[in-house]
Here is the input.
Amino acid sequence: MVPSVLVILANGFEEIEAITPIDMLRRSGANVMVAGLDNLEILGSHGIRVTCDALLSDCNQGYDCVVCPGGSVGSKNLAASYAVLEKCIKTAQTGIVASICAATAVVLGRTGLLESHTVTGYPGSEKECPGLVLSKERVVTDGNLITAQGAGCALEFALAIITRLFDQKTADKLSKQVIQ
Here is the structure.
């Protein structure tokens, strides 16, 4: 069965943290749905516009993985949406929730999913989630959560997701293809 992945974008998202996982997951053969929070066209934090496949409100099926890219403004926009928080909580019951950069503290910090897990995120973002201690590791996989520090970790983050959805062999093959 082909794994299904939902990547949720909100205005202000960090482009590298979204596009790298989308690209690598599609190369892996995963069925990737890119969903815009409020519009089909979403503006990233560095002025890059991305056209999404669907609106989040139309993505009613279950997914094997939900990915929340960071970016300060993008993370806050995701966290302000009950639909995003609900999608993360529901997916965590049987699948993987992946967040990078500020999204770990800002988005997942509002879901209760971080309790009893070791996670990482953008240094300093833990102030958005009282009591959260971030690992200094670039990418952390703990149970059904995969988290990463920031844009410079986007490829490692994507490969960690691919390892969980497929296997290490698939991740290694893709890593070699992009000469990582």
In short: The two ends are 27 Å apart (CA to CA). The longest strand covers residues 4-9. The mean pLDDT is 97.
